[in-house]
């Protein structure tokens, strides 16, 4: 019987052989993972469809003059209520003879500025609140949670009405208002995500390293809850568009005669009685397309985050 | 020969990932005879669970049978229609899963849930209720009526697993598949569950397919075993033969990775299996094990090894005649014991207790613990779950503040109760390696960032020097530089644990608490990690507080061992004495519960009932309610025994005098056995 020389298994004088036992990791880097995620996102028809519509409205908001065929506020009594697809009026004209198509294009601007700005603000508030509640827990969590519940029991529109009646109804006020109203709601989603992270050992390891709470919250935990935050951001964006249009519809935040969609629907709705549907239906469809598009994108992202 | 209960015939099974089939089972053939227990062993990723689920065709949608068949009681499972398949699963085969907490519906009481298993076979509701109660008695639940009315979460893990087994047996199956049924359970509970399965198998004549990575459990449970590697059965034979005289190099390697009975870090390093499991669906060389095999030669690389029949057992190897020659010698000596107990202790605990308050009740998780930890020493903490091991470790780390009365002293200075209040030196000096590296490493941070942060925070390394230090520490834990830019998800379990160890060691700690650091890892990886831990200890004179439920691992690494029960130290002493005796009756029971790969000759000491709640601690000796050696009279139930010093400098909390405590007979038995062989 001859003993067989054994590399590693039998006698491994070189301790590095131990590690060799595990070190052929598949050559995948973080960059590959991100690229793969992006690839999957761009293969999703829901995401692409939604994104195309959103980008269209964003373009309208940024460069309305490129697309619009007319000045949105130019009045011409002669062309009052011209039907769609006639005389260069693609979507017809309204009661003052203004071009409905051009007003639709210009109308995107207000909503495309206010809604994202408000939701960015709301998300920042939500992240801070959610991290504080989820990480510290205890009495702080209890107090903030109760306050949020109280806030959420009030209808958004009602709070907005009260606030806007008291303050001047500028663009900034509306952004702040929607931001502060949505912040706590986003905060609850963030809190739920933080709660599961908080119990993981990496947080404990950071505490045992003597890290400060702000470091643990923003550097350790936050990157791990980005997924739910992105989903929540897109979902809230849809709601913000809605809320903003609702406020405009009841006359807040926009000047009379502004091409804003909510405002236009409000001002032109009476024409419906005279069988003139286009001045109000066109901005309504524009609004609906934007909300649906945002939700399509939200769905597609959610599908990826959940896996 | 009668029809086998289960027969795999050259089954090739693949998972289709993005249109590409990746083969998981590569021609697996084995059969389980009626009334037989068949064990499948192998490391994770070898296809054990896939084989188990293939037996009842319970496979994910992307699974694809390439060729071969599975027959259950003579019927081809893969060709059955949906309804036939449902009936087959309802009447002929049952599966018991790893986690009983997840296998039971938390919203339905045990009674109705168990009865459902009977109604599904066509029984009336009233008969089913009667049968459910009878079945609970069969699985040895003492008080079936009260259990029937409870929700699953109101039962302990062991009780839940009994209920799951009762459900599985409801249809009186021909085949019972157990997929890691005891992995989440304590050794004492595991032993009871295994006893139960064995008894029921004999009573019902059920065939058992037992899947486990716990080789000891498989040996104690099974008549025959099959060793799977990379989706191929590489060896099969009677459990005793395979474990005592393995005929395939992989089996040999697997068995040698385990710390053998009584082996110590001071005697020898543990063996590991170099190299890697082939990736899922990779093109395989002629012999699946060739890249890691110590015997591999030209023929192994060019010819597919045959299934060699060795008289009642088979091995898939060209060199079964040379397997015995795989060198055992030449293992580098382990670390020499350097613990010097004349030095000042590094950590002193004096009367440390920890009481949690919950709903007005007190939970005394740790009670009056006094111990010393010396530089370079490993203190093993053992005990069932609920014994306070982790709470004690967390108290040392400052995660929980101890009760007022006790004191902790680290390197001569008092230790603040909470991490936040501790000095930088104390924080740097006491670090932890967690059980589960997936949870312990931030999955959004790169390895460089994870370790770098610790270097910065703990070792106060200047930013300019971080890179140098990083290379040094990654080399010390045998990681390479290219791992630095990876995220944890891209590393295997063993590599992740190395990163976690590097992080703990970044600040050159004096004490590292290891909380079950290898229990989530495969045995070959476990061996490598244990070797690493003992190397680091030798190099840095580091002390370990080592928690594990695997007693062999504790024995391998520990210099002294503390046995905890209900938060109290029942016994503390040198590892050899605590294991070999004389030892506390509780230690004796714990040791006898752990099944061993070498086969057991010891008589199992059964512990009655479960560990009592820390909210309602028994009077007198806390262990008297389960103690097999409870003394005549009522001294045990009325007087708490003092911590009696033992001649070797340890302590034992028992009324029985030291020289009459158990332990001796075990050694006698073992000597006799090795004499026979």
Provide tags for this entry.
heterodimer, A: 307 residues, mainly alpha, MetI-like fold, 13 helices, 68% helix, disordered N terminus, B: 677 residues, alpha/beta, Rossmann fold, 3 domains, 8-stranded mixed sheet, 24 helices, 24 strands, 21% strand, disordered C terminus, transmembrane (chain A), transport (chain A), MetI-like (chain A), membrane (chain A), cell membrane (chain A)
Descriptive overview:
By secondary structure, chain A is an all-alpha fold. Chain A has one domain (36-60, 77-306): MetI-like (MetI-like fold), CATH 1.10.3720. Chain A has helices at 16-20, 30-43, 45-62, 64-67, 100-136, 138-152, 156-166, 171-198, 201-208, 213-221, 226-249, 261-268, 278-306. The radius of gyration of chain A is 27 Å and the shape is elongated. Chain B has 677 residues and is an alpha/beta fold. Chain B has three domains: 1-83 and 179-186 and 208-334, P-loop containing nucleotide triphosphate hydrolases (Rossmann fold); 347-565, P-loop containing nucleotide triphosphate hydrolases (Rossmann fold, 3-Layer(aba) Sandwich); 568-676, no CATH class. In chain B, α16 (447-457) packs parallel to α18 (493-505).
């Amino acid at each position: 019987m001859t003993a067989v020389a054994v590399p590693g298994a039998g006698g491994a004088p070189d301790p590095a052989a131990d590690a060799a036992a595990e070190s052929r990791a598949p050559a995948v880097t973080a960059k590959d993972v991100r690229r793969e995620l992006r690839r999957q996102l761009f293969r999703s028809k829901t995401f692409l469809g939604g994104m195309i519509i959103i980008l269209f409205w964003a373009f309208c908001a940024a460069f309305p003059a490129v697309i619009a065929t007319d000045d949105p506020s130019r009045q011409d009594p002669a062309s009052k209520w011209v039907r769609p697809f006639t005389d260069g009026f693609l979507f017809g004209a309204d009661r003052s003879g203004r071009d409905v198509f051009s007003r639709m294009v210009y109308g995107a601007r207000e909503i495309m500025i206010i809604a994202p700005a408000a939701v960015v603000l709301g998300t920042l508030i939500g992240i801070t609140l959610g991290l504080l509640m989820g990480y510290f827990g205890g009495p702080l969590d209890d107090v903030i949670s109760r306050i949020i519940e109280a806030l959420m029991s009030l209808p958004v529109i009602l709070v907005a009405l009260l606030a806007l009646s008291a303050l001047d109804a500028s663009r900034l006020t509306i952004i702040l208002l929607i931001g502060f109203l949505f912040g706590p709601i986003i905060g609850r989603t963030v809190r739920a995500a933080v709660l599961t992270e908080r119990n993981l050992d990496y947080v404990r390891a950071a505490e045992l390293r003597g890290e400060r709470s702000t470091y643990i919250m923003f550097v350790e935990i936050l990157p791990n809850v980005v997924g739910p935050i992105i989903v929540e951001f897109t979902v809230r964006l849809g709601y913000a568009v809605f809320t903003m249009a609702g406020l405009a519809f009841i006359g807040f935040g926009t000047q009379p005669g502004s091409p804003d969609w909510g405002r236009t629907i409000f001002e032109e709705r009476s024409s419906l009685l005279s069988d003139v549907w286009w001045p109000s239906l066109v901005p309504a469809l524009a609004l609906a397309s934007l909300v649906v598009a945002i939700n399509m994108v939200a769905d597609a992202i959610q599908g990826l985050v959940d896996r | 020969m009668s029809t086998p209960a289960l027969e795999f015939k050259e089954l090739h099974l693949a998972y289709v990932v993005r249109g590409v089939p990746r083969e998981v089972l590569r021609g697996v053939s084995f059969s389980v005879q009626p009334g037989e227990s068949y064990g499948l062993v192998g490391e994770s990723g070898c296809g054990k669970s896939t084989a188990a689920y293939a037996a009842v065709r319970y496979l994910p949608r992307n699974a694809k049978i390439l060729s071969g068949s599975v027959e259950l009681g003579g019927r081809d499972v893969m060709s059955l229609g949906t309804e036939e398949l449902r009936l087959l699963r309802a009447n002929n085969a049952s599966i018991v899963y790893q986690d009983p907490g997840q296998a039971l519906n938390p919203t339905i009481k045990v009674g109705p849930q168990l009865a459902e298993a009977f109604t599904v076979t066509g029984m009336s509701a009233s008969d089913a209720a009667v049968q459910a109660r009878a079945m609970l008695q069969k699985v040895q639940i003492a008080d079936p009526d009260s259990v029937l009315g409870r929700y699953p979460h109101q039962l302990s893990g062991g009780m839940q697993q009994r209920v799951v087994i009762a459900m599985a047996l409801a249809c009186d199956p021909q085949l019972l598949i157990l997929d890691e049924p005891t992995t989440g359970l304590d050794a004492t509970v595991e032993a009871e569950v295994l006893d139960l399965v064995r008894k029921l198998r004999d009573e019902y004549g059920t065939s058992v397919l037992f899947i486990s990575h716990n080789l000891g459990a498989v040996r104690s449970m099974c008549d025959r075993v099959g060793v799977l590697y990379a989706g191929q059965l590489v060896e099969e034979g009677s459990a005793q033969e395979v474990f005592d005289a393995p005929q395939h190099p992989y089996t040999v390697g697997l068995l040698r990775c385990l710390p053998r009975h009584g082996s110590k870090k001071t005697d020898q390093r543990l063996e590991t299996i170099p190299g890697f499991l082939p990736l899922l669906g990779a093109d395989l060389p002629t012999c699946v094990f060739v890249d890691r095999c110590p015997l591999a030669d030209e023929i192994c690389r060019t010819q597919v090894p045959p299934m060699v029949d060795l008289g009642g057992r088979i091995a898939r190897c060209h060199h079964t005649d040379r397997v015995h020659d795989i060198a055992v010698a030449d293992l580098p000596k382990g670390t020499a014991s350097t613990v010097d107990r004349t030095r000042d202790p590094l950590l002193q605990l004096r009367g440390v207790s920890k009481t949690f308050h919950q709903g007005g009740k007190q939970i005394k998780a740790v009670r009056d613990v006094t111990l010393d930890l010396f530089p370079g020493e490993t203190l093993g903490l053992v005990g069932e779950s609920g014994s306070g091991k982790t709470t004690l470790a967390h108290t040392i780390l400052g995660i929980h503040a101890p009760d007022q009365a006790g004191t902790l002293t680290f390197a001569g200075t008092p230790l603040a109760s909470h991490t936040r209040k501790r000095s930088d030196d104390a924080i740097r000096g006491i670090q932890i390696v967690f059980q589960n590296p997936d949870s312990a490493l931030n999955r959004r941070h790169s390895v460089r960032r994870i370790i770098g942060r610790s270097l910065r925070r703990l070792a106060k390394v200047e930013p300019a020097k971080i890179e140098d230090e990083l290379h040094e520490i990654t080399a010390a834990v045998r990681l390479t530089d290219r791992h630095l830019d990876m995220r944890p998800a891209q590393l295997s379990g063993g590599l992740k644990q190395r990163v976690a160890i590097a992080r703990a060691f970044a600040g050159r700690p004096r004490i590292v608490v290891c909380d079950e650091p290898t229990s989530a890892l495969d045995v070959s990886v476990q061996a490598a990690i244990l070797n690493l831990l003992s190397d680091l200890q030798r190099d840095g004179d580091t002390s370990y507080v080592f928690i594990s439920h695997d007693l062999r691992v504790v024995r391998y690494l520990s210099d002294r061992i503390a046995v905890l029960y209900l938060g109290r130290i029942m016994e503390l002493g040198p590892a050899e004495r605590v294991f070999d005796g004389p030892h506390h009756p509780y230690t004796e029971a714990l040791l006898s519960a752990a099944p061993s790969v070498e086969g057991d000759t010891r008589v199992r000491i059964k512990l009655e009932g479960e560990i009592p709640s820390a909210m309602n601690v028994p009077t007198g000796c806390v262990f008297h309610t389960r103690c097999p050696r409870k003394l005549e009279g009522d001294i045990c139930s009325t007087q708490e025994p003092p911590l009696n010093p033992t001649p070797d400098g340890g302590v034992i909390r028992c009324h029985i005098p030291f020289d009459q405590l158990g332990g001796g007979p075990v050694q006698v038995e073992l000597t006799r056995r090795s004499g026979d062989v």
